[in-house]
Request: fold
Amino acid sequence: MALHQMSQVVIGVPNVEETARYYTDFGLTGAREQSGDWGLRTLDGGEQLRLVYSPLRRLVELTIGVDDRDDLDRVAHQLAALGVPATRDGDRLSAVEPVTRARAVLAVVPRLTQAEVPATRYNGPGRLERVSERAPGVLRMAPVRPRKLGHVVLGTTDVATTERFFLDGLGFKLSDRIAGAGAFMRCSTDHHNVLALAAPVNFLHHTSWQVDDVDEVGRGATAMLEDHPERHIWGLGRHHAGSNFFWYLKDPAGNFSEYYSDLDCVLDDQLWTPETFEGSRGLFNWGPPPPPSFLNPDDLAALMVGAHSPSS
Ligand SMILES: [Fe+2]
Reply:
């Protein structure tokens, strides 16, 4: 029937243990396996992050959920038409993205159904949704726990080829574009699950994780920064493409991770018109100005010469 989910990412890092501790602070839960790899879970999506050793930080693999084997057959034909080799193994089809060398695995898995979280009560002019009590956002005590993996952003030295792989090869849909820089693409009802960004080197820019509301974005980031101010990258703000609230933090290997809430969703493709955004609109709608290190992370030069440069 269709692609339906960004199921999992595998990230390679030189410092697996240290990076795993960061993601457990971030709110994922998991444990070290005998191999030394880590599997980390979200509340609703199960094991959605795997950390494995790699001398340089990189996106090793992403898994995309599909409904049935017909989807795998269709994607195999599409990849063949692009001249991209693919390997079929029962309920899985895998192919390597030609530019970044990240492996995409399409797997037949059940659709993710999330229990409905009641809307947070916010007061507004003429609208009292919460009376005689403090806001939930200031009363919550529990650590923030991401609900699911949302998207992955990849820097690519050949954005046209990477886009073709996801759009024409795997069958992602185009949601919006940043003029001259990249494409927001979806394999689910989320506005984007992959963003390919033109870059001087192939690298993993960030992964993004859904939380309940803007208060959880703020609470999560605040807790992450309490003893580690160096983790701060950019936030709080609201993106224009996708509309989501965001706050970006940096893991000890140099990858960014984002808490997000209130992302645009597309249920009917006919009712969504992709746009191309110019200038700062491509980046955000409001928030503090993005630091230069957001688009050009501090370790890019080191990644370009292939040197190991953890940024912690
Ligand atoms: Fe993002």
